[in-house]
Design goal:
The protein has about 550 residues and is mainly alpha-helical. It contains 21 helices and 11 strands.
């Protein structure tokens, strides 16, 4: 979609000026009526419908609403701590919630306009059906975000052209029904591949529908939905050319590596400042303040640290509990090398650091005071980790930016990848009472994660050591495996809500969230602006319980 974005600049400018309304029904179509109904306007409109994915995936709002306040990440020094502490400040007036609500409905209204107008647009039938399938795929994604976060939401399939002040919360079942219908249409009408990289394709729709069925199954423990999720996931794994890369960290190689055989669908960014919007800023949020430590200064390779999200002790030091698992080393940065030579006070004495010397070490184990004092670099074992200094997540780093202070990043945001497809299949099979069938999907993924040994025999031994048995599979194991595999990838809050483990695991593993998290936090509060702008207020558009 790097090519797609070249065609939507004017469209997006008009969209921004026309849609800065917080009321759902006042989210107007993004271009003039006449243009959107022309062949060029219709195609440009489809391109623009993708752009609202970038309002969530790649910005701080997406991370706040997906990773913070879970068993995976807690608040760093620069965080909006409300998303971790679960106090009353996380309420209906919270700006991030209003923004995701508004932007999702603008995206939905764009899709509705395209879907409603498609019959009258004079373009070749197959191409029209493909673009229509893309619009329905995208609408499903916007509604899926909303229903996971807010539960019952306003449901509309018709284009809104002017201000409307009536709205109602549709039953969750009705929202899922539309999502599934949209994805069924997308699967039936999208091509298997696309020459315009970044467009929705059939396997992406199958992966998305597998996740939808898995999530809906969690609401009522529906065996039929679990079976559908497993079959769709197996289709993506078996019927296309995707494969797990041999090296876990290669999945996140920047540049041409982003378009690898494991990526099913990603949100596109580019180094073209005219089309990159605000850019993918995820590289900013998971880095600690390495640049104020002795021997260090900010550089492109280590990133600009906003210090938003700090891994929980469970994430950083415990969940990668198998010594044969190579993913911890490929997920966290624990060692920094001097890029500012000089003489510094370190561990109670003067130490001279040369370029390339070890400057910081953050081991996942404890060290004695004597052991630390003997080191010629700063040491932060678990007991000394703080909300400013902690192991940094590396998969989002973006050293291709123009300079070390640049905020907009260029790398794509990987939304669907085959590693998760294996996990969807395993969870669905386990939850439908078929752990033996789930096991090969887990073990295939775990063998890929094994450390590479000094010899082939050592590597083979590590792969064997990574294998588990069906008796070891339960929902806690699946959640741990998702953390190990998908660390930081905007999945965790939804994982915990889907499996009804949010409260339990926050209480166990997130000290900041543990005192306040309650069952009602498995839904976000409806934005107060929506309630206030609806005729009848709370009686017509009631707030979620607890807020």
């Amino acid at each position: 979609m790097k090519n797609i974005y070249l065609s939507l600049l004017l469209f997006a400018v008009i969209a921004f000026s026309a849609c800065k309304k917080e009321l759902v029904e006042d989210a107007r179509s993004q271009v003039t009526d006449n243009y959107l109904s022309t062949p060029d306007g219709f195609q440009t409109g489809v391109n623009a419908a993708y752009s609202y994915m970038r309002e969530f995936y790649g910005l701080e709002i997406g991370s706040n609403l997906s990773v913070q306040g879970t068993d995976e990440y807690t608040a760093g020094s620069g965080a909006d701590r409300d998303f971790t502490t679960y106090t009353s400040n996380l309420g209906p007036t919270k700006g991030n919630l209003t923004t995701v609500w508004t932007n999702s409905y603008i995206g939905i209204n764009t899709c509705n306009a395209l879907i409603n107008r498609a019959p009258d647009v004079a373009i070749e039938a197959t191409l029209k059906n493909t673009r229509l399938a893309e619009a329905r795929f995208l609408r499903s994604q916007y509604y899926f975000l909303l229903v996971q976060m807010f539960g019952a939401v306003h449901l509309t399939t018709t284009e809104t052209k002017g201000a409307v002040t009536t709205a109602a919360r549709a039953p969750v079942a009705d929202v899922y029904k539309l999502i599934i219908e949209d994805l069924d249409f997308a699967i039936a009408n999208l091509p298997v591949t696309s020459t315009n990289y970044g467009r929705a394709i059939k396997p992406a729709a199958e992966h998305a529908l597998a996740k939808v069925y898995l999530t809906r199954a969690g609401i009522a423990n529906d065996a039929a939905d679990y079976t559908k999720a497993a079959e769709l996931a197996k289709s993506v794994i078996n019927n296309y050319t995707y494969r797990l890369l041999d090296n876990f960290s290669d999945v996140f190689a920047q540049g041409t590596g982003e378009r690898n055989n494991e990526v099913i669908f990603s949100i596109q960014y580019s180094n073209n400042v005219l089309t990159n919007g605000m850019g993918n800023k995820t590289h900013l949020y998971f880095q600690s303040a390495y640049d104020v430590q002795p021997g260090m200064q900010r550089d492109l390779a280590n990133g600009r640290p906003f210090s938003r999200y700090r891994p929980t002790p469970y994430n950083a030091n415990q969940v990668y509990n198998n010594p044969a698992d190579g993913r911890s080393d490929k997920t966290f940065k624990r060692v920094y090398f001097c890029n500012r030579p000089g003489t510094y006070a370190i561990n109670g004495r003067q130490v001279t650091l040369k370029l390339g010397d070890t400057a910081i070490y953050m081991p996942p184990f404890e060290m004695t005071a004597a052991q630390i004092a003997a080191k010629n670099y700063s040491v932060f074992p678990p007991s000394r980790v703080s909300d400013t200094m902690y192991p940094a997540l590396t998969k989002f780093l973006d050293p291709t930016r123009r300079d070390s202070n640049d905020e907009p990043g260029y790398r794509d945001f990987i939304l669907f990848r085959l590693g998760e497809t294996y996990l969807i299949a395993a969870e669905a099979l386990l939850m439908s009472g078929r752990p033996a069938e789930a096991l090969p999907f887990i073990n295939t993924l775990r063998r890929r994660a094994a450390k590479t040994g000094a010899t082939a025999a050592e590597t083979a031994a590590n792969k064997t050591a990574m294998e588990v048995t069906a008796a070891q599979l339960n929902i806690d194991f699946i959640l741990d495996e998702r953390m190990r595999e998908l660390n930081g990838e905007h999945q965790r809050w939804y994982d915990l809500v889907r499996t009804k483990q949010l409260v339990n695991r926050v209480k166990l593993y997130n000290a900041l969230g543990a005192p306040n998290v309650k069952d009602f936090h498995m839904l976000r509060p409806i934005p107060q602006s929506q309630i206030d702008a609806t005729d009848g207020g709370n009686s017509s558009f009631p707030q979620n319980p607890g807020y």
